[in-house]
Design brief:
Radius of gyration: 22 Å
Largest sheet: 5 strands, antiparallel
Strand content: 35-45%
Strand order of the largest sheet: 3-4-5-6-7
Number of strands: 7
Order of helices and strands: HEEHEEEEE
Structural class: alpha+beta
Shape: globular
Distance between the termini: 67 Å
CATH topology of the domain at 37-115: Nuclear Transport Factor 2, Chain: A
Length: 117
């Protein structure tokens, strides 16, 4: 009887540590593309600047260490909160407009020319 109680207690403690460890790992992950944030102008954004930057870099086939002049700007376009991500990569200038609520790329410019998305 005593051994069963010790075994049950040990299993309970192990499960508790695993659950707490998973919760702690989620908090340390930092940017979460699904984390909702309310901006100062009242918009509800699903994406943060880091997630928008990641979407644009992935679309261009680049990573942050290989681009120059990287900027991310939050603004309103046609009543929708968007992120405008700009950078230079492989001799080309890229600019992406990304819907902050859906993560959709709504406009892509390469060297100032619009690319159909």
């Amino acid at each position: 009887m005593y051994k069963r109680s010790i075994l049950a207690l040990t299993v309970l403690m192990l499960v508790a540590f695993l659950v707490l460890g998973a919760c702690s790992a989620d908090k340390k992950a930092g940017t979460d593309a699904t984390a909702t944030q309310i901006t100062t102008d009242g918009y509800q954004n699903i994406l943060d600047e880091g997630s928008a930057k990641g979407i644009a870099l992935t679309e261009a086939g680049a990573d942050e260490s290989s681009v120059e002049n990287l900027t991310v700007e939050s603004k309103e376009a046609d009543g929708v909160e968007v992120y405008v991500v700009s950078f230079s990569f492989n001799g080309l200038d890229f600019e992406y407009t990304i819907n902050a609520q859906s993560g959709e790329i709504t406009e892509e410019l390469i060297n100032g020319s619009r690319v159909v998305v």
